[in-house]
Amino acid sequence: MKDSLKGDLFIAAEVEIDGQISEIVIHHENQSNRASLEKRVFEYLCYAWLLKQKPVWSIVFYTDDAIWRKPVPDKYWYGFDSKNEKQFHKFDVIKLKSHMSGELIQKESLLCKLLALKANDKGTDPEKLVREIYQTISQMKDQLPRDILLLIEQFVSFYKKISQEKFERIKKEVNMDDYPETISEYYILEGEKRGEMKATLSLIDGLIKNNVADWPSIAGATGVDQQQYFEMQKEYQQLEAARI
Hints:
Elements: E1 9-17, E2 20-31, H1 38-52, E3 56-62, H2 65-68, E4 75-81, E5 85-90, E6 92-95, H3 100-106, H4 110-118, H5 126-140, H6 146-159, H7 164-173, H8 183-209, H9 215-222, H10 226-243
């Protein structure tokens, strides 16, 4: 995951495409006025691809009522060849109008509740909606990676429409106040975790390499058995790969 750019969000994700799991980058763009955005979406596609060199899925969320009633662009002409002629970057468009919020809130999906929070609906109780979102997150937090939790945290914090005091109280109510709230804090914590894992793995590797101890002795000294060691190796490799 990368930092947001001018309100845009980028996140790496794995999705099933043509029966295979592929890693992609999702670009989430918000648009609330009539300004042209096709070129900007394509520029961020190029930026995201250069960073990760993975396919990019661009999604544009329209939130303005005036734009909602008119056709909106969903592609950008970026190239040409003699056979296919014009080549376009196509992106998905989701139009969020005020009256859609109620329907979104009724759905159980966490994503729908997040989109409802983003929509401009004066009839929605933002405090209640934020509480429902964090109750859902609390139930799912063991299944969600910390970077996804951070992304949700930043999204809700930006669109919460309630005071910071109420926001903090809601998180405390559902035991969600102990997670990093900034990308810097997240990477500091990940760096500490990576350093601790590297030290433990180096110690165990040294014991194994020099035939100093067997696994029962290693487990007794480090608290890490053989299975945990292999799992730690895999997790450490993933953390290292995420830095690239």
